[in-house]
Design a protein that fits this description.
By secondary structure, the chain is of the alpha+beta class. It is built from 19 helices and eight strands. Strand 1 and strand 2 form a beta hairpin.
Length: 473
C-alpha cells in the first residue's frame, strides 16, 4: 500500500522515537524522585484524597484502582525502564504489534500519573507529551514504512503548539504587539537559567528582533509544515533553532525539547529505505480508525484557537488525546519571589535568628547564579513562582508545605537545595515574605558579585508553628 506509507521518512522515524523516549525518561525520573512530597500519601496534595472525590471517568488512572507510595514508585520506575528500552531501540526488535504495545506502556503509565497529579501536573507539556506519546504507538517499527497519516498528525500537533502560542501572544499582552515583551520576560520568567541575565541585558533592538522572529516562527512558519519538501524541512529546522534559543534563555522543563522532538519527523533525513512488505491490513485499519478519532477530537482545539477568548493549555478529554497549547499570553513587568524562613526561637520576633530555606532552581540568595535544570522539571520551584504572582495559586498546598518544613520532613527537604536546620532540630516557626527581585546591572555585578537585587515588599505568611497536638518534644 504505497499510498499508506512514506518510505522517504524511514530514518526520520527512529530519530523521532529515540528522542521521544529520552523525554519520557526525564518525565518518569521527575515523577519518581519528587512524588512522595508532592502527591504521596503524606504529600502536599495526596493522591488518595484526590481519587476519593474524583471519579475514574474524569481522571482515568491506574491509581484510581489502587494507590500506595510503593505502587506509585513501581509505576514510575517501570516507566523509566521502558523508556530506556525504547531509547535503546527495543521496539525495532519486536514484531509490529509488540512494538506498538511497548510504546503503549509509557503512555498508560504517564497518563495515570498526570491524571492524579493535580496542580503539580497542570502544565501544558504534560498533555503535550501524552498527545505525542499516543501517536507514537501507531508510528510502527522496522517491519513497515512510516504511515503517512501519522506523520501528518504529528505535524498537526506541531502546528497547534506553535500557532496557538503565537495567537495567544497577539491576543494577550500588548507588549507582544509592540515588540517589547522581552524587555521584561528574561527577568520575570518562571525559572531563569544561567544565561538569562545576559539575555536580559541585550540591547533593546535585539529584543525587538527576538520578538519579531518569534512571531514569524509561530504565526507564519507553521503553515509551511504542510508544503512539499524541502520547504517543510526548512520550516521544521527554523522551529528547532528557535526552540534551542529558548533552551539557552531559560528553564522551561521539557517544553522546548518535546517541541524539537515534534519537528524531527518533518525533517527528511537522507537514507535508503530497505525493502519491507506492505503494511498489514489490520495495521492500516487501526491507524485509520485512530486518525479519524483524532481528527474528530480536533474540533474543540480548533474552535478554541479561532476564538477571541482563546485559552492556553487545555485538555478537552480525560485521555489528553487532542489538546490546546500556548505560553506567556501575558508577561509580568516585575518579578516577585516568596522567601521562606525558619527560626528555632521560642518567641518569634523581627530580630530573631531567621534562616532562609534555599530552593534548587528559583531565585533566592541574590549572589547565587541560576543553574540549568531543564529538561528536568522542578515542580515545587515552578509553583513557587505562581505563588508569588498570587497566594490563590498556593491555597491548596502551601499550608501543608509549611507544616512539612516544621516537621523537617525528609521527603519535602529533598525538594530543596538546602535546609538551614539539622535533621534533629526542626524550626519552631516558619514564615514567608514577599520580595521584589530585579537583575543587577553590569556595574552592580562587578561591584557586588550578585546577579539579583531584592527589596522587601510585604509579609506573605506570618510566623507559623505546628499545632500543640502535632508538636514534637
Amino acid at each position: 500500500m504505497d499510498w499508506f506509507t512514506a518510505s522517504e521518512y524511514w530514518l526520520s522515524r527512529p530519530v523521532f522515537q529515540r528522542a521521544l523516549a529520552a523525554v519520557y525518561l526525564v518525565a518518569f525520573l521527575t515523577a519518581a524522585w519528587q512524588f512522595r512530597a508532592l502527591i504521596g500519601r503524606r504529600g502536599m496534595l495526596p493522591v488518595p484524597r484526590f481519587v476519593g472525590r474524583v471519579p475514574f471517568k474524569r481522571a482515568p488512572s491506574l491509581f484510581q484502582l489502587h494507590y500506595s507510595d510503593r505502587f506509585f514508585a513501581l509505576c514510575a520506575w517501570a516507566g523509566c525502564a521502558v523508556s530506556a528500552a525504547l531509547l535503546a531501540g527495543l521496539d525495532s526488535l519486536l514484531p509490529l504489534w509488540g512494538g506498538m504495545l511497548l510504546w503503549l506502556v509509557p503512555w498508560v503509565l504517564y497518563l495515570s500519573i498526570v491524571n492524579v497529579g493535580q496542580t503539580w501536573y497542570s502544565f501544558g507539556w504534560e498533555s503535550l507529551l501524552l498527545e505525542v506519546g499516543f501517536l507514537a504507538v501507531f508510528l510502527g517499527n522496522d517491519e513497515v514504512a512510516p504511515p503517512v497519516v501519522v506523520l501528518f498528525l504529528l505535524r498537526w500537533i506541531l502546528f497547534r503548539v506553535e500557532f496557538g502560542a503565537g495567537l495567544i501572544k497577539m491576543r494577550g499582552d500588548e507588549c507582544w504587539r509592540k515588540l517589547t515583551c522581552l524587555d521584561h520576560h528574561h527577568e520575570t520568567q518562571p525559572m531563569p537559567g544561567p544565561l538569562s541575565w545576559f539575555f536580559h541585558h541585550l540591547p533593546g533592538p535585539a529584543h525587538r528582533v527576538e520578538v519579531a522572529a518569534n512571531h514569524v516562527t509561530q504565526l507564519v512558519v507553521p503553515f509551511l509544515l504542510f508544503t512539499p519538501q524541502p520547504v517543510a524541512t526548512a520550516a521544521a529546522a527554523l522551529m528547532i533553532v528557535t526552540q534551542l534559543w529558548l533552551v539557552l534563555s531559560g528553564n522551561f522543563s521539557w517544553l522546548n525539547w518535546i517541541t524539537i522532538v515534534l519537528a524531527l519527523p518533518v525533517v527528511r533525513f537522507p537514507a535508503d529505505a530497505p525493502d519491507v512488505p506492505g503494511a498489514p491490513l489490520w495495521y492500516v485499519v487501526v491507524v485509520l480508525a485512530v486518525a479519524a478519532l483524532l481528527v474528530g477530537l480536533s474540533y474543540q482545539p480548533v474552535r478554541n484557537m479561532v476564538s477571541r477568548r482563546q485559552v492556553m493549555n487545555r485538555s478537552f478529554d480525560p485521555l489528553h488525546l487532542v489538546n490546546t497549547y500556548g505560553a506567556f499570553g501575558s508577561v509580568s513587568r516585575v518579578r516577585h519571589e516568596v522567601v521562606v524562613e525558619g527560626t528555632r526561637d521560642d518567641v518569634p520576633r523581627a530580630d530573631s535568628d531567621w534562616r532562609e530555606y534555599e530552593f534548587k532552581g528559583k531565585p533566592g540568595d541574590p549572589r547565587r547564579w541560576p543553574r540549568q535544570f531543564a529538561p528536568y522539571h522542578l515542580r515545587l520551584d515552578w509553583m513557587m513562582w505562581f505563588a508569588a504572582l498570587s497566594p490563590a495559586y498556593a491555597d491548596s498546598w502551601f499550608g501543608t508545605f509549611v507544616e512539612r518544613l516544621l516537621e523537617n520532613d525528609r521527603d519535602t527537604l529533598k525538594l530543596l537545595r538546602r535546609s538551614p536546620f539539622p535533621p534533629d532540630e526542626p524550626p519552631r516557626y516558619v514564615r514567608a515574605r514577599l520580595f521584589r527581585y530585579r537583575y543587577t546591572t553590569w556595574r552592580e555585578l562587578r561591584e557586588t558579585g550578585a546577579c539579583w537585587e531584592r527589596t522587601f515588599v510585604r509579609e506573605y505568611l506570618p510566623p507559623t508553628r505546628l499545632a500543640k497536638t502535632a508538636q514534637r518534644p
